[in-house]
Amino acid sequence: MSSPILIIEEGPFSRVCAALLAEDGHTVQIVGAEATSLHRALSSDADSASLIVASYPVGHDVLKLLKGSKVPTIMLLNCIDRDMVHVLVESRNICCMVKPLDYRKFRLVVQDALAGSFRERGEVLVD
C-alpha cells in the first residue's frame, strides 16, 4: 500500500480536496493544522507521506517543519505575498496553486508530485 497524501485541516476545503483525491484512488489522511500533528504523522515511519497538501498561511508552520524534506508539498494560496516568495526561493519541492482552484489541474499537479517531478526538475511551479 502506498503512503498516504497528508492534507492539513482547513475546514470544508480540506475535505473537498480529500474527497477528490480519494475518488482518484489515493489514500488520504487529514491531519491537524498545528505543526505537532504533522510532525507526529511524518515521524510514524520513513514512508509516512507521499505528498502534503496545505493552505497558506495555515500551512506556514508546516513549511518550516518541512524545510529540507523530500516530501513534495502543494501549497494552496489566496494570493502570493513576499513571505511566500521567500519560502519558494529556498524550496525545491513545493508547488503553489492560487485559489480558486481548477480541480482538473489540481489533480494533474498531484500526479506530477507523486511521480517525483518536483524533485527531478528542482523547480517551483506557480499556477
General description of the model:
This protein has about 130 residues and is α/β, with parallel strands linked by helices. It has one domain: Response regulator (Rossmann fold, 3-Layer(aba) Sandwich), CATH 3.40.50.2300. The chain has six helices and six strands. A six-stranded parallel sheet has the order 2-1-3-4-5-6, sandwiched between helices. Strand 3, helix 3 and strand 4 form a beta-alpha-beta unit. The protein is globular. The model has no long low-confidence stretch (mean pLDDT about 80).
Structure summary, number of beta strands: 6
CATH first level: Alpha Beta
Task: Give the count of structural domains.
Answer: 1
Termini separation: 31 Å
- The helical percent reads 40-55%
N-to-C SSE string, H for helix and E for strand? EHEHEHEHEHHE
Name the CATH superfamily assignment.
Response regulator
Which structural class is indicated by helix and strand composition? alpha/beta
Major sheet: 6 strands, parallel
Rg: 13 Å
Low-confidence parts: none
Mean pLDDT: 79
Do you know the CATH architecture? 3-Layer(aba) Sandwich
- Provide the spatial order of strands within the biggest beta sheet: 2-1-3-4-5-6
Write down the overall geometry. globular
- CATH-derived topology: Rossmann fold
- What percent of residues are in strands? 15-25%
Total number of helices: 6
